[in-house]
Automatic annotation (TrEMBL):
<dbReference type="Pfam" id="PF08890">
    <property type="entry name" value="Phage_TAC_5"/>
</dbReference>
<dbReference type="InterPro" id="IPR014986">
    <property type="entry name" value="XkdN-like"/>
</dbReference>
<protein>
    <recommendedName>
        <fullName>Phage XkdN-like tail assembly chaperone protein, TAC</fullName>
    </recommendedName>
</protein>
<dbReference type="InterPro" id="IPR038559">
    <property type="entry name" value="XkdN-like_sf"/>
</dbReference>
Length: 129
């Protein structure tokens, strides 16, 4: 795995940790044969999205909500783009552009940027090997 985090390590990284910038990631979308850029969501937004995914009344819209708000290139919030596609609701653009599996996958990568699924348990058995 890695080394244990100490107070000295945290103090050495203090300025970096205070000035954290949102991370971005490029993803290749097969159906479009092109790349998109996603941005790390805020903690509040990520938790809201996870809560939305747990709610049976909103579960089916959670991934599209995340993708709509966190894809920064192309700008899915562009009103002209939405008008040209005939979107009734702003988030409709997500399902019009991407396949269902792509929406779920993109949403997963966005939540990974927020740190979900990036902490691993250190198993004592593995540690002693």
């Amino acid at each position: 795995m890695g080394k244990k985090l100490s107070i000295t390590d945290l103090l050495a990284q203090k300025e970096q940790l205070r000035k954290k910038r949102k991370r971005t990631m490029s993803l290749h979308v097969d159906s479009l044969d092109a790349e998109i850029v996603i941005e790390e969501p805020s903690r509040v937004f990520a938790l809201e999205a996870l809560e939305m995914a747990q709610d049976p009344m909103r579960r089916d819209k959670a991934d599209a909500h995340v993708v709509y708000h966190c894809v920064v290139e192309p700008n899915l919030k562009d009103r002209d783009l939405q008008k040209q596609f005939g979107c009734a609701e702003p988030t409709d653009i997500v399902d019009m552009i991407f396949r269902a599996g792509e929406v779920s996958s993109i949403s997963g990568y966005i939540l990974q940027l927020a740190g979900f699924d990036s902490v691993k348990k250190v198993d004592a058995d593995l540690k002693n090997e």
